[in-house]
Amino acid sequence: MSASTSKLAPIPAGSSQASVAEIARRARAASRLLAKLSNPQRNEVLQAVAEAIEKAMPQILAANAADCRAAEPAVKSGDMTTAMLARLGDQQKLANMPGYVRSVASLPDPLGKRLTATELDDGLTLYKETCPLGVIGVVFESRPEVISQVAALTLKSGNAVILKGGSEAARSNDVIVSVWRDCLGQFPAVPADAIQLLHTREEFTELLSRDRDVDLIVPRGSYELVHFVMRNSRIPVLGHGEGICHVYVDAAADLDKAVAVTVDAKVQGPAICNAAETLLVHRAVAKQFLPKVATKLGEAGVEIRGCPETMPLLAGTPVVPATEKDWATEYCDLILSVKVVADEDEAIAHINQYGSRHTDAIVTEDSKAARKFMDEVDSAGVFQNASTRFSDGYNYGLGAEIGISNSKLHARGPMGLEGLTTYKYKLFGNGHTVAEYSQGLKHFKHRPIK
Protein backbone atom coordinates (compact mmCIF):
# COMPACT_ATOMS: atom_id res chain seq x y z
CA MET A 1 0.00 0.00 0.00
CA SER A 2 1.24 3.46 -0.83
CA ALA A 3 -0.33 5.52 1.98
CA SER A 4 1.78 6.88 4.83
CA THR A 5 2.94 4.20 7.23
CA SER A 6 2.86 6.45 10.32
CA LYS A 7 1.03 4.47 13.01
CA LEU A 8 0.43 4.40 16.75
CA ALA A 9 1.28 1.20 18.58
CA PRO A 10 -2.09 -0.59 18.69
CA ILE A 11 -3.91 -1.57 21.85
CA PRO A 12 -4.50 -5.34 22.08
CA ALA A 13 -8.12 -6.29 21.39
CA GLY A 14 -8.73 -7.65 24.86
CA SER A 15 -6.81 -4.99 26.76
CA SER A 16 -8.48 -3.48 29.81
CA GLN A 17 -5.48 -1.27 30.67
CA ALA A 18 -6.17 1.57 28.25
CA SER A 19 -8.48 4.28 29.53
CA VAL A 20 -11.58 5.19 27.57
CA ALA A 21 -10.00 8.58 26.92
CA GLU A 22 -6.95 6.87 25.39
CA ILE A 23 -9.12 4.54 23.30
CA ALA A 24 -11.09 7.50 21.96
CA ARG A 25 -7.90 9.46 21.25
CA ARG A 26 -6.44 6.54 19.35
CA ALA A 27 -9.64 6.14 17.38
CA ARG A 28 -9.47 9.79 16.36
CA ALA A 29 -5.86 9.38 15.25
CA ALA A 30 -6.79 6.20 13.35
CA SER A 31 -9.66 7.96 11.58
CA ARG A 32 -7.29 10.59 10.21
CA LEU A 33 -5.07 7.88 8.76
CA LEU A 34 -8.03 6.02 7.28
CA ALA A 35 -9.24 9.17 5.54
CA LYS A 36 -5.99 9.20 3.52
CA LEU A 37 -6.47 5.72 2.09
CA SER A 38 -7.61 5.31 -1.49
CA ASN A 39 -10.66 3.24 -2.35
CA PRO A 40 -8.49 0.41 -3.81
CA GLN A 41 -6.50 0.33 -0.56
CA ARG A 42 -9.63 0.09 1.56
CA ASN A 43 -11.03 -2.62 -0.70
CA GLU A 44 -7.79 -4.61 -0.50
CA VAL A 45 -8.01 -4.62 3.28
CA LEU A 46 -11.67 -5.67 3.26
CA GLN A 47 -10.96 -8.58 0.91
CA ALA A 48 -8.15 -9.71 3.21
CA VAL A 49 -10.40 -9.46 6.26
CA ALA A 50 -13.09 -11.57 4.56
CA GLU A 51 -10.50 -14.28 3.90
CA ALA A 52 -9.20 -14.06 7.48
CA ILE A 53 -12.72 -14.47 8.88
CA GLU A 54 -13.25 -17.56 6.74
CA LYS A 55 -10.03 -19.09 8.07
CA ALA A 56 -10.97 -18.25 11.66
CA MET A 57 -14.57 -19.44 11.37
CA PRO A 58 -14.03 -22.64 13.45
CA GLN A 59 -12.71 -20.53 16.35
CA ILE A 60 -15.53 -18.00 15.94
CA LEU A 61 -18.21 -20.68 15.98
CA ALA A 62 -16.61 -22.41 18.97
CA ALA A 63 -16.55 -19.14 20.92
CA ASN A 64 -20.17 -18.53 19.98
CA ALA A 65 -21.19 -22.01 21.12
CA ALA A 66 -19.47 -21.31 24.45
CA ASP A 67 -21.39 -18.04 24.78
CA CYS A 68 -24.66 -19.86 24.12
CA ARG A 69 -23.90 -22.55 26.71
CA ALA A 70 -23.04 -19.87 29.26
CA ALA A 71 -26.33 -18.09 28.51
CA GLU A 72 -28.59 -21.12 29.01
CA PRO A 73 -28.98 -20.65 32.81
CA ALA A 74 -30.05 -17.03 32.22
CA VAL A 75 -32.73 -18.22 29.80
CA LYS A 76 -33.97 -20.82 32.29
CA SER A 77 -34.16 -18.22 35.05
CA GLY A 78 -35.96 -15.74 32.83
CA ASP A 79 -33.11 -13.20 32.87
CA MET A 80 -32.61 -13.66 29.11
CA THR A 81 -35.33 -14.20 26.53
CA THR A 82 -35.30 -17.09 24.11
CA ALA A 83 -35.36 -14.48 21.32
CA MET A 84 -32.11 -12.96 22.58
CA LEU A 85 -30.53 -16.42 22.76
CA ALA A 86 -31.65 -17.05 19.19
CA ARG A 87 -29.97 -13.83 18.04
CA LEU A 88 -26.82 -14.73 19.96
CA GLY A 89 -26.58 -18.22 18.53
CA ASP A 90 -27.43 -17.56 14.88
CA GLN A 91 -24.38 -19.29 13.44
CA GLN A 92 -25.65 -18.89 9.88
CA LYS A 93 -25.29 -15.14 10.24
CA LEU A 94 -21.78 -15.63 11.58
CA ALA A 95 -20.98 -17.82 8.59
CA ASN A 96 -22.29 -15.05 6.32
CA MET A 97 -19.82 -12.46 7.66
CA PRO A 98 -17.25 -12.87 4.85
CA GLY A 99 -20.03 -12.30 2.32
CA TYR A 100 -21.10 -9.09 4.06
CA VAL A 101 -17.53 -7.80 4.01
CA ARG A 102 -17.00 -8.63 0.34
CA SER A 103 -20.34 -7.06 -0.53
CA VAL A 104 -19.28 -3.80 1.10
CA ALA A 105 -15.92 -3.92 -0.69
CA SER A 106 -17.73 -4.15 -4.04
CA LEU A 107 -19.70 -0.94 -3.47
CA PRO A 108 -18.71 2.38 -5.08
CA ASP A 109 -16.40 4.67 -3.14
CA PRO A 110 -18.53 6.88 -0.88
CA LEU A 111 -15.76 9.43 -0.35
CA GLY A 112 -14.76 12.41 -2.48
CA LYS A 113 -18.07 12.44 -4.36
CA ARG A 114 -18.77 15.89 -5.74
CA LEU A 115 -22.30 16.79 -4.68
CA THR A 116 -22.43 20.32 -6.10
CA ALA A 117 -20.13 22.76 -7.85
CA THR A 118 -20.80 26.49 -8.04
CA GLU A 119 -18.87 29.27 -9.73
CA LEU A 120 -19.26 32.10 -7.23
CA ASP A 121 -17.35 34.49 -9.50
CA ASP A 122 -14.53 34.44 -12.02
CA GLY A 123 -11.75 32.36 -10.49
CA LEU A 124 -13.77 31.62 -7.35
CA THR A 125 -15.27 28.09 -7.36
CA LEU A 126 -17.01 26.24 -4.54
CA TYR A 127 -17.27 22.44 -4.37
CA LYS A 128 -19.30 20.33 -1.94
CA GLU A 129 -17.74 16.86 -1.50
CA THR A 130 -18.35 13.85 0.72
CA CYS A 131 -15.94 12.91 3.52
CA PRO A 132 -15.91 10.57 6.55
CA LEU A 133 -17.70 11.41 9.77
CA GLY A 134 -14.61 10.39 11.74
CA VAL A 135 -15.18 8.14 14.79
CA ILE A 136 -18.34 6.08 15.32
CA GLY A 137 -19.34 4.46 18.61
CA VAL A 138 -21.67 1.47 18.31
CA VAL A 139 -23.30 -0.41 21.18
CA PHE A 140 -25.27 -3.56 20.38
CA GLU A 141 -26.85 -6.57 22.06
CA SER A 142 -26.65 -10.31 21.37
CA ARG A 143 -25.60 -10.31 17.73
CA PRO A 144 -21.82 -10.75 17.29
CA GLU A 145 -22.06 -10.75 13.48
CA VAL A 146 -22.89 -7.05 13.78
CA ILE A 147 -19.16 -6.44 14.36
CA SER A 148 -18.20 -7.39 10.82
CA GLN A 149 -21.11 -5.53 9.23
CA VAL A 150 -20.27 -2.35 11.13
CA ALA A 151 -16.51 -2.62 10.76
CA ALA A 152 -16.75 -3.21 7.01
CA LEU A 153 -18.94 -0.16 6.53
CA THR A 154 -16.82 2.09 8.74
CA LEU A 155 -13.54 1.06 7.10
CA LYS A 156 -14.96 1.43 3.59
CA SER A 157 -16.17 4.94 4.50
CA GLY A 158 -12.89 5.95 6.14
CA ASN A 159 -14.19 5.96 9.73
CA ALA A 160 -12.83 4.41 12.91
CA VAL A 161 -15.22 2.50 15.15
CA ILE A 162 -15.41 1.81 18.89
CA LEU A 163 -17.69 -1.14 19.67
CA LYS A 164 -19.42 -2.30 22.83
CA GLY A 165 -21.20 -5.63 22.60
CA GLY A 166 -23.40 -7.39 25.11
CA SER A 167 -21.68 -9.40 27.84
CA GLU A 168 -23.62 -12.47 26.69
CA ALA A 169 -21.55 -12.46 23.46
CA ALA A 170 -18.19 -11.57 25.05
CA ARG A 171 -16.27 -14.60 23.74
CA SER A 172 -17.60 -14.26 20.19
CA ASN A 173 -16.95 -10.52 20.15
CA ASP A 174 -13.38 -10.88 21.37
CA VAL A 175 -12.50 -13.45 18.73
CA ILE A 176 -14.09 -11.51 15.85
CA VAL A 177 -12.47 -8.20 16.81
CA SER A 178 -9.11 -9.96 17.20
CA VAL A 179 -9.41 -11.35 13.66
CA TRP A 180 -10.08 -7.86 12.33
CA ARG A 181 -7.24 -6.23 14.25
CA ASP A 182 -4.74 -8.95 13.38
CA CYS A 183 -5.60 -8.56 9.71
CA LEU A 184 -5.39 -4.75 9.77
CA GLY A 185 -1.97 -5.11 11.42
CA GLN A 186 -0.65 -6.74 8.25
CA PHE A 187 -1.12 -3.46 6.32
CA PRO A 188 1.43 -0.79 7.33
CA ALA A 189 -0.83 2.06 6.23
CA VAL A 190 -3.87 0.84 8.17
CA PRO A 191 -4.11 1.44 11.93
CA ALA A 192 -5.37 -1.53 13.95
CA ASP A 193 -7.10 1.02 16.16
CA ALA A 194 -9.58 1.56 13.36
CA ILE A 195 -11.60 -1.01 15.34
CA GLN A 196 -11.58 -1.18 19.13
CA LEU A 197 -13.76 -3.01 21.63
CA LEU A 198 -15.02 -1.86 25.01
CA HIS A 199 -15.98 -4.49 27.57
CA THR A 200 -18.06 -2.87 30.29
CA ARG A 201 -21.16 -0.71 30.56
CA GLU A 202 -19.12 1.78 32.60
CA GLU A 203 -16.63 2.16 29.76
CA PHE A 204 -19.35 2.84 27.23
CA THR A 205 -21.09 5.29 29.55
CA GLU A 206 -17.81 7.18 29.84
CA LEU A 207 -17.43 7.13 26.06
CA LEU A 208 -20.70 9.05 25.77
CA SER A 209 -18.91 12.08 27.24
CA ARG A 210 -16.00 12.04 24.74
CA ASP A 211 -17.56 14.49 22.30
CA ARG A 212 -14.16 15.86 21.25
CA ASP A 213 -13.09 12.49 19.87
CA VAL A 214 -16.33 10.66 18.88
CA ASP A 215 -18.63 12.02 16.18
CA LEU A 216 -21.66 9.70 16.29
CA ILE A 217 -23.12 7.08 18.62
CA VAL A 218 -25.31 4.30 17.21
CA PRO A 219 -27.15 2.21 19.81
CA ARG A 220 -28.56 -1.05 18.45
CA GLY A 221 -30.85 -2.86 20.82
CA SER A 222 -33.82 -2.49 23.10
CA TYR A 223 -35.93 0.61 23.62
CA GLU A 224 -34.35 0.96 27.06
CA LEU A 225 -30.81 0.85 25.66
CA VAL A 226 -31.49 3.40 22.92
CA HIS A 227 -33.16 5.85 25.27
CA PHE A 228 -30.47 5.44 27.93
CA VAL A 229 -27.90 6.49 25.33
CA MET A 230 -30.03 9.38 24.11
CA ARG A 231 -30.46 10.69 27.67
CA ASN A 232 -26.80 10.39 28.63
CA SER A 233 -24.80 11.21 25.50
CA ARG A 234 -23.02 14.47 24.76
CA ILE A 235 -22.44 13.06 21.27
CA PRO A 236 -25.05 13.03 18.48
CA VAL A 237 -27.07 9.78 18.59
CA LEU A 238 -28.59 7.93 15.67
CA GLY A 239 -30.94 5.50 17.37
CA HIS A 240 -31.43 2.03 15.92
CA GLY A 241 -34.84 1.98 17.55
CA GLU A 242 -37.45 -0.64 18.23
CA GLY A 243 -39.44 -2.18 15.42
CA ILE A 244 -43.19 -2.15 15.92
CA CYS A 245 -43.95 -3.05 12.33
CA HIS A 246 -47.39 -3.64 10.81
CA VAL A 247 -48.99 -5.54 7.96
CA TYR A 248 -52.31 -4.08 6.79
CA VAL A 249 -54.54 -6.35 4.67
CA ASP A 250 -56.72 -4.06 2.55
CA ALA A 251 -60.22 -4.74 1.21
CA ALA A 252 -58.66 -5.15 -2.24
CA ALA A 253 -55.99 -7.62 -1.13
CA ASP A 254 -55.16 -10.86 -2.88
CA LEU A 255 -55.71 -13.05 0.18
CA ASP A 256 -53.16 -15.68 -0.83
CA LYS A 257 -50.53 -12.95 -1.10
CA ALA A 258 -51.72 -11.56 2.21
CA VAL A 259 -51.24 -14.91 3.95
CA ALA A 260 -47.73 -15.31 2.48
CA VAL A 261 -46.66 -11.77 3.40
CA THR A 262 -48.11 -11.95 6.92
CA VAL A 263 -46.54 -15.30 7.77
CA ASP A 264 -43.14 -14.30 6.39
CA ALA A 265 -43.21 -10.93 8.18
CA LYS A 266 -43.90 -12.63 11.52
CA VAL A 267 -42.20 -16.01 11.30
CA GLN A 268 -39.11 -15.68 9.09
CA GLY A 269 -37.16 -13.75 11.73
CA PRO A 270 -39.38 -13.05 14.75
CA ALA A 271 -36.55 -11.69 16.90
CA ILE A 272 -35.43 -9.12 14.30
CA CYS A 273 -36.57 -5.50 14.46
CA ASN A 274 -38.22 -5.65 11.02
CA ALA A 275 -40.58 -8.49 11.97
CA ALA A 276 -44.28 -7.65 12.04
CA GLU A 277 -45.81 -7.26 15.49
CA THR A 278 -49.36 -6.23 14.53
CA LEU A 279 -51.69 -7.41 11.76
CA LEU A 280 -54.46 -5.00 10.72
CA VAL A 281 -57.29 -6.42 8.61
CA HIS A 282 -60.01 -4.54 6.73
CA ARG A 283 -63.43 -5.53 8.02
CA ALA A 284 -64.61 -6.40 4.50
CA VAL A 285 -62.18 -9.34 4.24
CA ALA A 286 -61.67 -10.23 7.89
CA LYS A 287 -64.18 -13.10 8.01
CA GLN A 288 -62.58 -14.79 4.99
CA PHE A 289 -58.95 -13.93 5.68
CA LEU A 290 -58.44 -14.38 9.39
CA PRO A 291 -59.16 -18.14 9.58
CA LYS A 292 -56.81 -18.75 6.63
CA VAL A 293 -53.91 -16.82 8.11
CA ALA A 294 -54.55 -18.12 11.64
CA THR A 295 -54.12 -21.69 10.42
CA LYS A 296 -50.70 -20.93 8.92
CA LEU A 297 -49.61 -18.87 11.92
CA GLY A 298 -50.72 -21.66 14.25
CA GLU A 299 -48.66 -24.18 12.29
CA ALA A 300 -45.64 -21.95 12.89
CA GLY A 301 -46.32 -21.72 16.62
CA VAL A 302 -47.46 -18.10 16.65
CA GLU A 303 -49.59 -16.89 19.54
CA ILE A 304 -52.39 -14.57 18.36
CA ARG A 305 -53.62 -11.72 20.52
CA GLY A 306 -56.88 -10.46 19.06
CA CYS A 307 -59.13 -7.45 19.38
CA PRO A 308 -62.81 -7.97 20.37
CA GLU A 309 -63.84 -8.18 16.72
CA THR A 310 -61.14 -10.74 15.96
CA MET A 311 -62.08 -13.15 18.75
CA PRO A 312 -65.42 -14.46 17.35
CA LEU A 313 -63.97 -14.74 13.83
CA LEU A 314 -61.39 -17.17 15.22
CA ALA A 315 -63.68 -19.07 17.55
CA GLY A 316 -61.97 -22.39 16.79
CA THR A 317 -58.48 -21.01 17.26
CA PRO A 318 -56.66 -20.29 20.55
CA VAL A 319 -56.62 -16.46 20.78
CA VAL A 320 -55.51 -14.33 23.72
CA PRO A 321 -57.51 -11.09 24.18
CA ALA A 322 -55.35 -8.14 23.14
CA THR A 323 -54.84 -5.24 25.54
CA GLU A 324 -53.94 -1.62 24.83
CA LYS A 325 -50.34 -2.49 25.73
CA ASP A 326 -50.15 -5.05 22.90
CA TRP A 327 -50.50 -2.42 20.18
CA ALA A 328 -47.33 -0.69 21.43
CA THR A 329 -45.25 -3.80 22.14
CA GLU A 330 -42.27 -5.13 20.21
CA TYR A 331 -42.52 -8.82 21.04
CA CYS A 332 -39.39 -10.07 19.24
CA ASP A 333 -41.08 -13.45 19.56
CA LEU A 334 -43.72 -15.66 17.92
CA ILE A 335 -46.57 -13.42 19.07
CA LEU A 336 -48.80 -11.33 16.79
CA SER A 337 -51.49 -8.85 17.78
CA VAL A 338 -54.44 -8.70 15.38
CA LYS A 339 -56.99 -5.91 14.93
CA VAL A 340 -59.91 -5.55 12.54
CA VAL A 341 -60.25 -2.00 11.18
CA ALA A 342 -63.14 -0.26 9.42
CA ASP A 343 -61.08 1.10 6.56
CA GLU A 344 -57.64 2.20 5.38
CA ASP A 345 -57.86 5.50 7.24
CA GLU A 346 -58.25 3.66 10.55
CA ALA A 347 -55.31 1.41 9.68
CA ILE A 348 -53.08 4.40 8.89
CA ALA A 349 -54.16 6.20 12.06
CA HIS A 350 -53.39 3.09 14.14
CA ILE A 351 -49.91 2.72 12.61
CA ASN A 352 -49.05 6.38 13.10
CA GLN A 353 -50.23 6.21 16.72
CA TYR A 354 -48.64 2.95 17.84
CA GLY A 355 -45.88 2.24 15.32
CA SER A 356 -42.20 3.03 15.70
CA ARG A 357 -41.70 4.63 12.25
CA HIS A 358 -39.69 1.60 11.16
CA THR A 359 -41.39 -0.43 8.40
CA ASP A 360 -45.05 -1.04 7.55
CA ALA A 361 -46.68 -2.92 4.68
CA ILE A 362 -50.01 -2.87 2.86
CA VAL A 363 -51.32 -5.88 0.94
CA THR A 364 -53.61 -4.65 -1.82
CA GLU A 365 -54.22 -4.79 -5.56
CA ASP A 366 -55.58 -1.23 -5.47
CA SER A 367 -52.78 1.12 -6.59
CA LYS A 368 -54.63 4.16 -5.25
CA ALA A 369 -54.89 2.58 -1.80
CA ALA A 370 -51.21 1.65 -1.94
CA ARG A 371 -50.16 5.23 -2.82
CA LYS A 372 -52.32 6.62 -0.02
CA PHE A 373 -50.75 4.20 2.48
CA MET A 374 -47.21 4.99 1.34
CA ASP A 375 -47.79 8.75 1.42
CA GLU A 376 -49.57 8.91 4.78
CA VAL A 377 -47.82 6.28 6.93
CA ASP A 378 -44.96 8.07 8.70
CA SER A 379 -42.33 5.33 8.55
CA ALA A 380 -38.86 4.89 7.08
CA GLY A 381 -40.07 1.96 4.96
CA VAL A 382 -43.53 1.58 3.41
CA PHE A 383 -44.13 -1.52 1.27
CA GLN A 384 -46.84 -2.88 -1.02
CA ASN A 385 -47.35 -6.64 -1.27
CA ALA A 386 -43.98 -7.41 0.31
CA SER A 387 -42.85 -8.60 3.73
CA THR A 388 -41.52 -6.10 6.26
CA ARG A 389 -38.50 -8.40 6.57
CA PHE A 390 -37.10 -6.84 3.39
CA SER A 391 -36.18 -3.76 5.43
CA ASP A 392 -32.47 -4.51 5.73
CA GLY A 393 -29.28 -2.90 4.47
CA TYR A 394 -28.05 -6.03 2.71
CA ASN A 395 -31.44 -6.58 1.04
CA TYR A 396 -31.45 -2.96 -0.11
CA GLY A 397 -28.07 -3.41 -1.81
CA LEU A 398 -26.17 -1.40 0.83
CA GLY A 399 -23.76 -4.28 1.46
CA ALA A 400 -24.58 -4.28 5.18
CA GLU A 401 -26.00 -1.80 7.66
CA ILE A 402 -24.71 0.18 10.61
CA GLY A 403 -28.26 0.12 11.96
CA ILE A 404 -31.81 1.11 11.07
CA SER A 405 -32.74 4.66 11.95
CA ASN A 406 -36.30 5.54 12.93
CA SER A 407 -35.40 9.22 13.07
CA LYS A 408 -35.57 11.64 10.15
CA LEU A 409 -32.32 13.58 10.51
CA HIS A 410 -29.07 12.63 8.75
CA ALA A 411 -30.13 9.07 7.92
CA ARG A 412 -33.42 7.17 7.84
CA GLY A 413 -34.12 3.48 7.50
CA PRO A 414 -31.26 1.01 6.87
CA MET A 415 -28.07 3.04 7.21
CA GLY A 416 -25.20 2.09 4.93
CA LEU A 417 -22.16 3.93 3.61
CA GLU A 418 -24.02 7.14 2.80
CA GLY A 419 -25.08 7.52 6.41
CA LEU A 420 -21.44 7.30 7.53
CA THR A 421 -20.35 10.27 5.46
CA THR A 422 -20.82 13.98 5.77
CA TYR A 423 -19.54 16.69 3.46
CA LYS A 424 -17.22 19.64 3.39
CA TYR A 425 -17.07 22.76 1.23
CA LYS A 426 -13.90 23.34 -0.77
CA LEU A 427 -13.44 26.89 -2.06
CA PHE A 428 -10.78 27.67 -4.65
CA GLY A 429 -9.92 31.33 -5.22
CA ASN A 430 -7.16 33.58 -6.46
CA GLY A 431 -6.63 36.18 -3.77
CA HIS A 432 -10.35 36.94 -3.50
CA THR A 433 -11.51 39.02 -0.53
CA VAL A 434 -15.01 39.59 0.86
CA ALA A 435 -14.37 43.34 1.05
CA GLU A 436 -14.52 43.61 -2.74
CA TYR A 437 -18.06 42.23 -2.72
CA SER A 438 -19.33 44.11 0.32
CA GLN A 439 -18.10 47.37 -1.25
CA GLY A 440 -19.78 46.59 -4.56
CA LEU A 441 -16.53 46.34 -6.49
CA LYS A 442 -17.35 42.79 -7.52
CA HIS A 443 -20.61 40.83 -7.81
CA PHE A 444 -21.37 37.15 -7.25
CA LYS A 445 -22.45 35.04 -10.23
CA HIS A 446 -23.55 31.92 -8.30
CA ARG A 447 -23.53 29.88 -11.50
CA PRO A 448 -24.06 26.11 -11.04
CA ILE A 449 -21.41 24.03 -12.77
CA LYS A 450 -22.78 20.89 -14.37
Any overview of this molecule?
By secondary structure, this protein is an alpha/beta fold. It has two domains: 20-220 and 417-424, 3-Layer(aba) Sandwich (Aldehyde Dehydrogenase, Chain A, domain 1), CATH 3.40.605; 245-390, Aldehyde Dehydrogenase, Chain A, domain 2, CATH 3.40.309. Helix content is 40%, strand content 20%. The protein has 15 helices and 17 strands. The protein has helices spanning 20-34, 39-77, 82-88, 91-95, 97-105, 146-156, 170-184, 201-207, 223-232, 255-267, 283-299, 310-313, 344-354, 367-376, 434-438; strands spanning 114-121, 124-132, 135-140, 160-164, 195-198, 216-220, 245-249, 276-282, 303-306, 319-321, 335-341, 359-363, 381-384, 403-405, 413-415, 421-428, 447-448. The strands form four sheets. The chain has a seven-stranded parallel sheet, with helices on both faces. A four-stranded antiparallel sheet has the order 16-2-1-17, with no helix packed on it. It has a four-stranded parallel sheet with strand order 5-4-3-6, sandwiched between helices. Strand 1 and strand 2 form a beta hairpin. Helix 10 crosses helix 11. The longest helix is centred in the N-terminal third of the chain and has 39 residues, at 39-77.
Which terms would index this structure?
seven-stranded parallel sheet; Aldehyde Dehydrogenase, Chain A, domain 1; 450 residues; four-stranded antiparallel sheet; globular; alpha/beta; disordered N terminus; 2 domains; Aldehyde Dehydrogenase, Chain A, domain 2; single chain
